Protein 1
Amino acid sequence: MESGYIIREQSSLEKELEGYDRSSSFIDRVVDFFRRKSIFVLAYGTGCGAVEMPPTFTSRYDAERFGISGAATPRQADVIIVSGYLSYKTLRRVIRTYEQMSSPKYVIALGSCTINGGMYWDSYNTVKRLDLYLPVDVYANGCMPRPESILDAFIALQKRIEYGEEKGGWERYIENIDYYRENQRAVLGDDIHPAYEADWYSSGGAL
Amino acid sequence: MILQSLLAVVTAYLTGMLYYGIYRNITARFHKRIGPPVTQNIYDSFKLLFKKESTSYGWIFYMGPIVMATASILTLLFIPLFNDGEMEGVSRYGDLFVVLYLMAMGPLGNALAVGISANPFGAMGIGRGLTRMAGLELPFYLSLMALVYFSGSSDITQIMSAQEDMPNMMRYPLLFTASMISLTGFLGKSPFDVVGAPVEVYSGPASEFGGKFLGLLMSQSAIFTFAKLLLMVDLFWGGAGSLAELLLKSFILFIITVFIGIVYGRFKVHQAVDFLIKIPSAIAVAGILLHL
């Protein structure tokens, strides 16, 4: 069902970081330093990946060592983790949650389900490629990725922030909002709520 | 004077943030974790202040964190930093009553902003916060008013200078105990941390605040924490003669509340108020009767 859509070039996700120019201005670097050092995570437990997150954040793997801590609400979060398969019904909530977060914001997707559908590859009501609907910054692949992989994904994200990549996922989302909306509408219908947030994005933040 | 006040605010911010960093580390060790760097809270607050977007609900929403921050900074400025008159800033223009009034002002201003955001979890948090405050204030005010009565002055500098031979915490141990229990609640530690109870009401009053609003709230919370500790040091421990002494004394008081907070579970709202009205208030009343 999704094969009919334009599959966007994902080269930016596969770039090697070494070739990047670091942020040019000093202030940018300082801001990037704080962003890298402090990451508030909204763990959106959808699939089986939800069970890998508690050990990541508690005594066993202690993500707080890297400045990664849980956020209570989307308003306070920097990163949303989509942990595994998403039904279309849940996708609506995830989009709404993502749009409530404040920029700069990042998406980490766990597991093969968010990459190609995984074991739900032929399901009629499951998202096969999360990147069609939300701008994913880092994938942690596997079925399921263990807490080590999740920490690895966070460290990859911190590197991307450190190197001051010119286009974060949230910028791509705003720039290509029509593309994302088209994909979202194709599976969710026109009822993407709340309308004011959808309008805000569609107007390029001008409202 | 302005320079001294600015310096006081910067000191309070840095100290408060570092104390919270140490607090997070101690909590982590209790969980058998390593814990974040000590400077983590400074990173958090700066990152939040550098966020590009912050959802707002109009000017009253802006007022919330601003009133909170104003109240915290004013509270700090009206409390003398040292007992020898150094770095006094504007502190001699206010007394204990002004400080107590300002301490209650911040949460009320924030209640307004949370109300305008119409977030049910925020409203729930504010309801819990104000109810808890009614419980916290009773033993705190009882012991502080008794202190004012015994010292014969509401001027913090005079209360400080009256304890040169013996600090008030030794002279009036019951009043000190009662206000320490209240301080644990004022600093948001268990068992009185029901206001921002993470899994029950998300983060309570702060649910709807993101970006720079949350950054401002975090920064003012650090300043306010230091101000409360400073008040306790001044009133019960004879103040401090130097920065090192001040840091040591306030840190010891802070660490006491941290240890109380780590080992206790969380009271429900009515349990907290029930406890505060009965036990610490009774201790405070006993302290008053003992010394009359």
Protein 2
Amino acid sequence: MYLLSVSVIAAASIGYELLLIRLMSIVQWHHFAYMIISLALLGIGASGTFLVLAKQWLLQRQRFSLWSFAIFFSVSSILCFYLVQKIPFNPLEVPWSALQFIYLSINYLLLMIPFFCSATYVGMVFIIFNKKLEKVYSFDLIGSSLGVVVIVYSLFVLEPQNCLRVIFFMGFVACAFNTPINKYKFLVSLLTIFIGAVIAYGIPTNWTALNLSEYKPLNKILQIPDNKIIREVSSPRGLITVVKTGRIPLRYSPGLSLKNPYKLPEQLALFTDGDSLSAINRFNYDIGEIGHMDYVTGALAYHLVKTPKVLIAGLSGGENILRALYFNSEKIDVVETNPQIVELLKKEYNNFSGNIYDLPTIKIYVGNLRNFLMKTKNLYDVIFIPPENSSAMSSVGFESVNASNLFTVEAIKVYHDKLKTNGILSITSWIKIPPRNSLKLFATIIHSLNKENFDFFEKNVMIIRSWKTTTLIIKNGLITEKDINTLKRFCQNRSFDLVYYPGIKKDEVNRYNLLEKSFFYEGASQLLSKDRGNFIKNYKFNIEPSIDSRPFFYNFFKWSSLPELLKLRTQGTVSMIEWGYIILVATLLIALIFSLLFILLPIFAFKKLKQSYPKKSIMSYFFLVGLAFMFLEIMFIQRFILFLGYPFYAIAYVIIILLLFAGIGSSISKKIEIHLKKIKSSIHTIDISIICLSTLLTIYLFFLSSIFNAFFSSNEIIKFIILVLLIAPYAFFMGMPFPLGLAWLEKHFKEGIPWAWGINGCASVIGAVFASLLLINLDYTTVTGIAVLMYLATLTIFRFVFLKKS
Amino acid sequence: MLKTILWHSSMLESKNIKISEEILKAMQNIPRHKFVPQKLVKYAYKDRPLAIGFGQTISQPFIVALMTELLNISDASVVLEIGTGSGYQAAILAEMGVNVYSVEIIPELAERASKVLNILYPKIKLRVSDGYFGWKKYAPFDGIIVTAAVDHIPEPLTHQLKAGGKIVIPIGSPYTVQELIIVEKKINGDFILHQILPVRFVPLTGDH
């Protein structure tokens, strides 16, 4: 029963972690959510220290302690989230106010409490069941795997805030396994579960309600009188909100030309996670009503190719479909990643949008643009990538640590290959000043299409800009005199600026939207020159081409520019700092400091013991096991995002399969060891696990890309089978080193079991953050190589320190 | 506060932008603490933005000074402000002798600002309304200051601007304002946008 309760509490704990990421992304912004939750997970490290210090006391009241920690977990999961929302933490104010750092610290200290409770629970079971450590670990991992399934399912069927009730209930279920009352145990357990369910159901709504930051666009629009939410749809992919405006109508058309003579139609606001605004336009089949569609830089593509067969990346509110319709497109295909947006617009707002979704010429596919294009046999006249899909939406660089496979050298090649002769790839992005994203995109395109014929590329590209957007046009053919005339006329009539076309003269640029210098023209010219390597190297931001093995398109961070930016932070450089990256570094530093504390504190407690123990080796072993495990988990998640096309599925599937098979590996590790002893083999389970793991990972280094390429166009089921076949074997071996280390501790240094549990917890937090940072700066091969080396180091420690001691 | 503004201002000399004496004097005369929520009064004279509720901020004083400077107006000019917020920007303009018309979309903010402005500068005309349409009754304006977030420049505002007049718009989220846009209306009715960039980060662009 204890083992089952470990599974339940582990499931609740990982469920809570994933749920918090979802909830905090809605109320705040994604990367602060990531930081807060990463640090809160240090609660696992703290539990190890606590168990070392309070073990005796807790074991004397074993069942009551377990019961209490399960209850504490339940209560704190709700209470701490409630309190966190009461703290006036404003991430945007962090660079201005020291007080915000205090609020930030209180945030993660509060959220640390539930993780501390659940980890203490599991740690206690490790101590109690020290003869079955591999079983405990296996139940912990398998429970975690199931926890992901439970929370993902809950997020599909419940509002995100109500999933907190599920977590609360799970804590009570774990508690039911440990009822401190000896009489009528079964009945008391059932009663506990029943009470848990009743309380979970009855928790006041305002305790779990989401209080969005007042600076989030959804909250801002709701401040205006008469504006109200008319529809809300939630899933693990995001919270979709539709807002109807009242007396003061929404007028959303980013970067609209000052020369636009048309009124904007009635619009509904569409938000994802309270951010990423797009508009659903009312359309009554009167093309004159949507004349403004022609007054943004992205419309240029339709002036260059008449009645095209077009592919649009992303549905947004349907605006880009209307634009394609406005220009009499012959066929319109749209690829949208979020099926809920498709469902919502097709079923509930089809009428509002003029029933355009019923038109036979319009087809909407759910999927990832790149994967779709790799599968389809269609060729297009225009592939249209709007700014919603091509730019970091946030102005403060929070996207910088998000991997994006849409804008890599390899992805651009895929798009280009699906253009008809003289077809056009049109990519529009928001302007960032000084230029970063548009230059990085240009550098990536040059690298992708320009490997062999430099002159050819120079004659295939055009760039324009407004004060809000830049549009890059890449033609699958030479740009003609006619194209150039069209371009010039288009820009002149809309007061857009020319940035580049073959044969452009310097006095033609920077005419309408005046910058101090013609930064964009100069940047584009430099990138097209033979000196572009030096230009990229010396630029203040990272504009190196993005590639599949390092797909961080939105990372513009350069360490060399940081001192200058920080020095001038109060003078407006705040928005130029890539905060996503800085937050990741800050998270790592804080995690390192706390981990050091949690890991070293127990050593003082051990000083009382007369027993000798190889403390450095124990620390190194469990730290490296935790670190390597997370390195591989993060690395495989990133790699499978590209393969599956959906970040959400990649994260969920990889974690589920990895934990499940690691759990199976753990559960049979002892059996293998016993068998090896029986046949008097000089080989140990640790040798088998590490050698097999290293071999498998080395094989993956060489063949994973080829396997992905071979199955890229397969259906989802085949892809899932491939994922299982690839992850299961190495996950199976990954599950062994930790329980094998614990088993050694059990024989030689029992007091070290909770310590090892804490070290592993700290290493997991550090590993996740560190791996993300390394992946941004290095590539998959190097990170995998480092993980293999770490595993080989654990083998060395086990072989040459632990076994010698045995 | 004024020292900091002057220091910031000195960094813009290469762009031929200098905060005028009149603006500095106006800022010196205005009790900024009266425009700040009670709990933030101690920060009122710091050169930083402050939250005033409803997702709005009172801008960093330097930005207020710079936006006023960029309007390039003289006393007796007629200026429209879109987004009254705390009322501080309107007060600066009024102190300089400008005829100020201010529009605020959030009734609670308008009410709070009008309480302060009615005492200090009763001449300022303020109304709760959709700033998108400007204030046609008092148009044309010599200058328009837009302090609300915009994704495009509203056409009615360009019509309500006198030839030779300027619209000043800050781009960026409240705590990260870094870029100002000036829309200049030419005598022939054409528009030119000046992206004053990066207004507070001269050294970086200098290297580019």
